[in-house]
Amino acid sequence: MEFTWFIGFGLVAMASLISVGIAYSCYRKSELARQQVTEELALVLSEFKAFKSSSIGIGKKLMGLEKDLADTVEKQQDFEFQDPNSLPYTQASRLIQMGADAEDLVNSCGLSKAEAELLMLVNRQPLGAAH
């Protein structure tokens, strides 16, 4: 009987050791999984912060572009409503048609010498045209 008791105790001890081994193995696996999830979460949070930062920068850039566009549209509208007769190049073209030279354009329209000469070339009457 004592031998049976010893075998029974041995079997219980062996089953206990196996159970402890399995429990420890499960614990290690869960710890490794937890560590992996923690690392992946840190990576996702880091990427999220980078996306958030870049989207804020893009948002600011977009707001700046919208403001620039609104300013450009306003300037375009102002330009469209200007009297075409008051523009220096229009005035210079009319003076050229009336016989003005480059020096007259510089003095009358506030153009540079190069601008006046270019306008003279552009507005020159074709050869053989009547004056």
Could you explain the architecture of this structure?
82% of the residues lie in helices and 0% in strands. The model has no long low-confidence stretch (mean pLDDT 87). The chain has 131 residues and is mainly α. The protein has 4 helices and no strands.
Number of helices: 4
Q: Output the helix-strand order.
A: HHHH
Task: State the total count of DSSP E strands.
Answer: 0
Secondary-structure class:
mainly alpha
Rg for CA atoms: 44 Å
Mean pLDDT: 87
β content, as a range? Answer: under 5%
Short description:
With 131 residues, this protein is mostly helical. The chain contains four helices and no strands. The radius of gyration is 44 Å and the shape is rod-shaped.
Features of this protein?
single chain; 131 residues; mainly alpha; rod-shaped; 4 helices
SSE order and pairing:
Blueprint: H1 2-80, H2 88-97, H3 102-109, H4 113-122
Helix pairs in contact: 2-3, 3-4
Pfam families: DUF2802
Keywords: Membrane, Transmembrane, Transmembrane helix
Transmembrane segments: 6-27
